Amino acid sequence: MMKKIVWILVVVLLNLNANDANSSNLSEKELAWLAKIEKKKINDRDFFEYIKAYEKFWKWRKDKSGLLVNDIGDIAFSIHISNERGSYDYNITKFSGTDVYLKDVIDLESFKRFVSHQGDQYFVDENRVYHYFDMAYGGTLSIENDIEREGFHWIKDSPYYANNEHIYFERTGVMKDADRETFVGIYPVGRDKNGYFLRGNRVKGEELQELREKGWIEKLDILYDERN
Q1: H or E stretch at 89
Q2: Please, are residues 131 and 144 in contact by the beta-carbon 8 Å criterion?
Q3: What percent of the chain has pLDDT over 70?
Q4: Are the C-beta atoms of 158 and 172 separated by less than 8 Å?
């Protein structure tokens, strides 16, 4: 998997040009690293140095939207990677598994992050819903074309989201058997008129009893009675 990540970086970095205006903020050593990458001469030993040089090359800064931008109009999303080498952040400029650039789709002025953590979550702008699926070796960012943007919002203090049609769990998406009108949630559980949920899945029997023993069912019932 580590090799795969390295070669993904190679593909991205092959597009860099040492004569680009952004290269002026790099040292000779950093430029040499980028030149080696362009020639596909990757050495895993220097992996983190390549990452640092790559990010410095683009002069990223955080926009008010929470995304990263630079002086030449690019937009990037920061993902957190943890593996046998350690933990680090890496910035992506394309939606995962596509050739579609974030800058060509996302409306920065209306882009909204609902939560501050780096794990699974949804985002919106005025036109679309986006989803980040977190994984230790680097997550995926996607455009959720099948999710209706109108009314999409985060259910506060929970891992759940809703729009005018459905309830969504932050990791696995739409919960087709959840009743939109009566659903309430607190982390990590939820309830509707038909029963209870844990991390997006309906629960019963022993699992339900465990939630009751932890006090989550009592809290949910109070919230449910207040809202319905």
Answers
A1: strand 86-92
A2: yes
A3: 76
A4: no
Which range, 40-44, 132-136, 183-187, is most confident?
183-187
Q: Are 149 and 127 in contact (CB under 8 A)?
A: yes
Are 176 and 166 a contacting pair, CB within 8 Å? yes
Which residue in 33, 97, 30, 110 sits closest to 64, CA to CA? 110
pLDDT at 138: 82
Q: How far is CA 77 from CA 70, 98, 183, 214, in A?
A: 12, 15, 31, 36
DSSP per position, 118-132: SSSEEEE-SS-EEEE
* N residues, the chain: 228
Q: How far is CA 40 from CA 14, 56, 151, 182, in A?
A: 8, 20, 47, 56
User: Which phi and psi (to 5°) does residue 46 adopt?
Assistant: -100, 20
One-letter amino acid for residue 99 of the chain: D
